[in-house]
Amino acid sequence: MVDEVDVRRHQLGRLGSIAGFDLVHNLAIILAMTGVIRFEIIFGDAVEAHFAAIERKDHGAILDAIEQQLSHEAAIRTANRKPLRIPNAPNATWELRCGANNRYRVFYDVNVEDRFVVVLAVGRKHGNRLVIGNEEFEL
Hints:
This protein is an alpha+beta fold and 139 residues long. The protein has two domains: 1-37, no CATH class; 38-138, 2-Layer Sandwich (YaeB-like fold), CATH 3.30.2310. The protein has helices spanning 4-15, 23-33, 47-52, 59-70, and strands spanning 40-43, 81-83, 94-98, 104-111, 116-126, 129-132, 135-138. The relative contact order is 0.15.
């Protein structure tokens, strides 16, 4: 007699090989049904130049923070995410603090309805100064 658990294991194992079954696609559907829908992250034109002014060794940590912090709850205030008053240097509505000692700032806008984030600027904070690309701003 075949054990019921073995039958289930066999059936689950076969799911990946069934034509048209895509585990990633189905997981996305499940997440959408539970309300966990990702934000698309779009980088503004100037951001590449901003990264060029930042030490290369820190690029990965900044990009990881952007992905982790902005892909799901970009418009929710946390210790490292906060809404900004306008006007500000990059004309952003939100700021993300990241990196060692929160020395980096990512400025972005959020469109909650259409589920996308636009990263407008990335800079490094030095005391009461913020350097974005080759520009320095007094805070």
